[in-house]
Amino acid sequence: RVSCERFSELCLDKLRLPAGADFTPPLHPTQLYESLLEGVALFILLWLFSSRPRPMMAVSGLFLVGYGLFRFGVEFLRLPDAHIGYLAFNWLTMGQLLTLPMLAGGVVLLFLAYRRVKPET
Questions:
Q1: Which terminus has fewer CB within 10 Å in the chain: N or C?
Q2: Is-contact 109 58, C-beta < 8 A?
Q3: Considering all CA atoms of the chain, what is the largest pairwise distance in Å, rounded to the nearest integer?
Q4: Which residues contact 94 (CB under 8 A, 6 or more apart)?
């Protein structure tokens, strides 16, 4: 609660007993979505993917792509930054814009990991 008040962190209403907060309007618990997707689901995906030998950079590339996709998707449910708003198309937020280089980097790593060098004949 201290960080909520000190740093204006995602807490939108005063705490009311017994142990809850009223949110008006109703909001998605995006922190829970992110922890489930970017934590649990991404861990399981990477664990299963890396259980077999993979080329160098493949697991890192999958991490960047997976994290970027999950983050990009959850950003649709979050409110945009109040001082910035939507950046383009009335739906692109700063969080989504910042995940695009991560997605691109992950795709490049996966491409480099799985490209086949053709032997010279």
A1: C
A2: yes
A3: 76
A4: 80, 81, 84, 87
Angle at 103 between CA 100 and CA 108, to 5 degrees: 125
Closest-CA residue to 34 (of 86, 72, 87, 81): 72
- Looking at the domain assignment, is residue 84 inside a domain? yes
In a domain, 75, yes or no: yes
Instruction: List the beta bridge partners of residue 21.
Output: 15
Cα separations in angstroms, 103 against 33, 73, 119 = 19, 12, 30
Tens of pLDDT along 42-98? 999 999 999 999 999 999 999 999 999 999 999 999 988 889 998 988 889 999 999
Residues 101, 71: Cα–Cα separation, whole Å: 13
- Per DSSP, what are the bridge partners of residue 20? 16
Q: Is residue 74 part of a domain?
A: yes
Nearest to 68 by CA among 35, 106, 40: 106
